[in-house]
Amino acid sequence: MSDGNIKRSGAKAPETSTESGPVLRLDHLNISVNTEDGLRPLVHDLSFDLHRGETLAIAGESGSGKSLTSLAIMGLLPPPAVRVTGGSIHFGEQELTTLGESALRQIRGNRIAMIFQEPMTSLNPVMKIGTQLAEAICAHESISFKDARARALAALKSVRLSEPEKRLNQFPHELSGGMRQRVMIAMALALKPDILIADEPTTALDVTVQREVLDLLRDLQREMGTALILITHDMGVVAEMADRVLVMKGGHFVEENDVVSLFSQPREAYTRDLLNAVPCLGDGLASASANKPNEDPYVAELENVVVRFNVRSGILGRVTHRVHAVENVSLNIRKGEIFSLVGESGCGKSTIAKAMVGLVKHSGRIRINGIDISPPYGTIDNQVRREIQMVFQDPMASLDPRMRVGELVREPLVIHGVGSVAEQKRRVEYLFERVGLSRDQIERYPHEFSGGQRQRICIARALALNPKLIIADESVSALDVTVQAKVLVLLKELVSDLGVSFLFISHDMAVVENISDRVAVMYLGQIVEMGSCQQIFGTPRHSYTRRLISAVPTADPTRERQTLARLVGDVPSPVRLISETVPHVTLENAGNGHMIAIE
Q1: Tens digit of pLDDT for each residue in 102-117?
Q2: Could you report the per-residue pLDDT of 234-272, keeping only the tens digit for each?
Q3: Sheet strands (E) in 250-297
Q4: What's the chain's Rg over C-alpha atoms?
Q5: Distances (CA, A) of 63 to 59, 249, 272, 431, 457
Q6: CA 522 – CA 217 distance, rounded (Å)
Q7: Residues 6+ apart with CB under 8 A from 345
Q8: Who is most buried in 107, 138, 407, 409, counting CB within 10 A?
Q9: What is the pLDDT at residue 17?
Q10: Which of 372, 526, 394, 506 is nearest to 451 (CA)?
């Protein structure tokens, strides 16, 4: 926020007295789904009150019923498959569960607004931002389109979007993820609703953008007195934003309390497990080994790697711009090491991974286990492909839904002709046990597993050929905190037991600190700081590294949070005119391999 540091010493009182009654009340709400065997309950007997100016966080893992509850409040449950089967939802004096669609439409968006997790799927890709905002306003108020567009411009200014006049005439794909989320907030708040429901509003955002969006929501709530329901599984966000917290599991109410009491004295075992699983900055430093020379051989060596993409425009399709995705990056990964790349979206982390496995063209030198794969020096052959494997962010998208998981894990062995059929099956059984799955699960299909189990299957498949290096690209960012913690433990076990190395790509600084041996921080395609985990998180030297670390939400509502200066102007872009050159940063050794870019 812009008014100095904040000290949370207790739950903030709602702006108006509770004597006037809650703005929203759920009373023994039940939500069920129709199945072949009849109704199956999804949300059981849920009750809570929400008062004006208050922030209520609904926390829990995937499948706990958080989002279903919000959709029920909005009247957006998909009938007849899923519906409210008991209880009531009172918005002031109105009972929402008995209203027809036309009456709900007058409330939805006008009196109760909602921000969804993925703004790109919530915005019409073929309509300009200004048109979408103006249409939403005209749908609820009898004003001219010109006046609605003026209101839309004012809404964009209120969410501090840079160059709001320009944004009105842009399409959603022309904006960054953080900008699109600000547009969604502007659309939700343009009609000054009494209640704003934010369903995982920052999960897909980088940590600095997440901080700005949360600060924005807090500021707007204070100015407008809007009641906020924040749905999230990020307990750090809960600690920073909530007045009260309601914990759910499997559709059941678990616990409710003010934020300070819940974090300091959780009553239920599940709440304690949820809080204990949250990776916190500082935990990794406590367990990190001291800096000492590592004489293990390199499994990956990158030297002055450059990746650029041409952008064509105009009638003739000439190259006018160039994306400088990776510029002059050099790094080494040793055997049995977890080396992490961190930075915001678009900084070049995943592009480096793609260059290492031959999915994008590059210049410079890349060596995998001593073999040069950089043209014209060498190429990626089957031997190199066996040495390096990848685990992606979305395990369901990485697994063929028509194949049994045992076949998926065995597939690399078949492609490379490793062993007989019997030997391959024994290898699959061993890998399933190694990643914490049982042999009787081998014949199942991917949809029969949870998200965390599917990620374990992807890790088993990556291990099938005994690779020297596994690239884990945002491999735990989509998982719940308890599942995430188990997968991170598994990765550490694989390093110690099998000696495999990991290139761990993430924008989650707390996760990186808790798993890494060494860390490189990237900004606009270049490394700005690199060193051991202790050096990067204990004594960060570059201003961008310090900004990333300071923006991380901490699961402690009493912690004093430093003000993060808000960025002004356009977000820096790696896209430049074809005639422009990119100045390369110079890294200096501050001692013991702590490399820092000269600012």
Answers
A1: 899 889 888 999 988 7
A2: 888 899 899 999 999 999 999 999 999 999 999 999 999
A3: 252-258
A4: 26
A5: 11, 8, 19, 28, 21
A6: 28
A7: 176, 177, 206, 507
A8: 409
A9: 42
A10: 394
List strands edge to edge, sheet with 112-115.
94-95, 82-91, 24-35, 38-50, 252-258, 244-249, 55-59, 227-232, 195-199, 112-115
Task: Tell me what pLDDT residue 7 has.
Answer: 39
Q: Bridge-partner residues for 246, per DSSP?
A: 58, 256
Q: Prior bond to 376 cis, omega within 30?
A: yes
Of 482, 554, 491, nearest to 63 by C-alpha is: 482
**Biggest CA-to-CA distance, the chain:** 76
Give CA–CA dist 365/477, Å, rounded: 30
Between CA 599 and CA 138 the distance in angstroms is 49
Contact 111, 189 (CB under 8 A): no
Residue 289's pLDDT band (boundaries 50, 70, 90)?
A: low
CB neighbour list of residue 133: distance below 8 Å, 6 or more residues apart: 148, 149, 151, 152, 155, 156, 168, 183, 186, 187, 190
Query: What is the rounded distance in angstroms from the CA atom of residue 381 to the CA atom of residue 166?
Result: 48
Sheet holding 575-577, edge to edge: 371-372, 363-368, 298-313, 318-334, 575-577
pLDDT bin (cut points 50, 70, 90) of residue 342 is very high
Closest to 84 measured CA to CA, from 482, 593, 95:
95
Strands (E), 188-297: 195-199, 227-232, 244-249, 252-258
SS3 state at 182: helix
- Indicate the length of the chain as a whole number: 599
Alpha carbons 136 and 30: distance in angstroms, whole number? 31
CB 279 within 8 Å of CB 514: yes
Quote the CA–CA distance of 209 and 548 in Å, as a whole number. 10
Phi, psi for residue 433 in degrees, rounded to 5: -65, -35
- Its pTM stands at 0.80
Q: How far apart are CA 69 and CA 50, in angstroms?
A: 14
User: Cα dist. 599→130, 183, 524, 584, 587 in Å?
Assistant: 39, 33, 14, 11, 10
**Do 44 and 30 touch, CB atoms closer than 8 A?**
yes
Query: Whole-angstrom Cα distance, residue 189 to residue 226?
Result: 9
8 A C-beta contact, residue 531 and residue 594: yes
Helix axes 481-498, 269-276, angle to 10 degrees: 50
- Tokens matching residue 562: 């430093």
Return the amino acid letter for 37.
D
What's the sign of the alpha-carbon dihedral 395, 401, 406, 412?
Answer: negative
DSSP tag of 550: H
Tell me which residue of 198, 235, 207, 205 sits closest to 61, measured CA to CA.
235
Q: Running DSSP on this structure, what letter comes out for residue 97?
A: G
Can you tell me the distance from the alpha carbon of 66 to that of 156, in angstroms, rounded to the nearest whole number? 29
The total of other beta-carbon atoms located within 10 Å of residue 439's CB is 12
Q: Cis ω on the peptide bond leading into residue 80 (within 30° of 0)?
A: yes
